[in-house]
Amino acid sequence: MSSDLKVRGGIPAITGEIDYTNAFHIFPETLKPFRSSILAYSSSFLSTLIGFPLDTVKTRMQTHKNFTSYWDCILKTYSKEGIKGFFRGIWAPIVSTSFSKSFSVSIFTAVKPECYSLFYETRFNKDTKELHPFLRNIPVCFVSGLIAGAGVSLFACPFEYTKIYAQLEKLVRNKSLKELPAHMQTSHQEVPRTSTLAIVKQILKHDGFIGLYSGYKYHLLRDAVSTGFYYSIYESMKWASNNVINADPTKSSPFSVLIAGGFSGVLSWVLIFPVDTTKSLVQKDAVTNILRRDQGLAPLPPKHRKLQKFEKRSYRGLAISITRSFLVNMVFFSAYEAAMVYLA
């Protein structure tokens, strides 16, 4: 895909060509067509594992007001649940996020040459050919990322919802216990079911298959728009950094990948965070009613959540999310770019 776009005059998608003089040949011929997807999955698996504890803190801060600070959330989670509390529900997202990232990269690199052709190589846009390649690349990246994010969201939403369920289950369960008569509270204090399969069964039991897509319209909006920003910012920052460091935007440096990877995650999250907060609150409402019905309590009336505005409340949990996003995307792009160059 990279070489195809290069021939057309655009900036290659994400990464350049293999360095065959220094590459390690580890892929058999049967797997070489899937090389990019396998490397994207592996890089995402590593970065998701590293960033998951921070994601747990972010979700709890977004959905619960009883934590006075990030440190308070960390201490209370550790004191009541131990280290395992930070990794509740990890298996669904560590598998799904890695697949999602792999799909996203594959869709983006496949769609980008077509978007470039549509934008700049039809008879309706001849005047745009005088634009600098840097400027021409931005709208192509954004639309390609928009398509990739929207496509991946259909697969990712059920997995992310089960993750949210696992992260919030104990907090929500303990809160609803207070409404039960005293003699019933002890019998409902069992350890929450934290396996992904048990959570899926619980969701299907109470809300059916459609329940797995709780908050989907906000998930779709978040993934589509943030992925558009994500790839646009990454490629633009890397191109500009390479131009400064190497005086050649096509020659990538490890430093430019680190910086561009970290900031693409941070800036795209800042821009879309209120949507993510709304999604988390909608999914928290769904988790709350499932657990209430499970405990014999009446479900709460629907809250009909509206999209959070750009105000302080909608950015609760942003700081920890920025830290996580910078770390996760720095690790992902560094690992992926290096693997794409040196693993053949």
From TrEMBL:
Annotated TM spans: 134-156, 255-275, 315-336
Solcar repeats: 31-114, 136-240, 252-342
This protein's UniProt keywords: Membrane, Mitochondrion, Repeat, Transmembrane, Transmembrane helix, Transport
Entry-linked Gene3D superfamilies: Mitochondrial carrier domain
GO cellular component, one term: mitochondrial membrane
GO MF assignments: transmembrane transporter activity
UniProt-listed PROSITE patterns: SOLCAR (PS50920)
Localization annotation: Mitochondrion membrane
Predominant subcellular localization, coarse grouping: mitochondrion
Cross-referenced InterPro entries: MCP_dom_sf, MCP_transmembrane, Mitochondrial_Carrier
Pfam families documented for this protein: Mito_carr
Membrane topology annotation: Multi-pass membrane protein
Function, in words: Mitochondrial transporter that mediates uptake of thiamine pyrophosphate (ThPP) into mitochondria.
Protein name: Mitochondrial thiamine pyrophosphate carrier 1
UniProt lineage: Eukaryota, Fungi, Dikarya, Ascomycota, Saccharomycotina
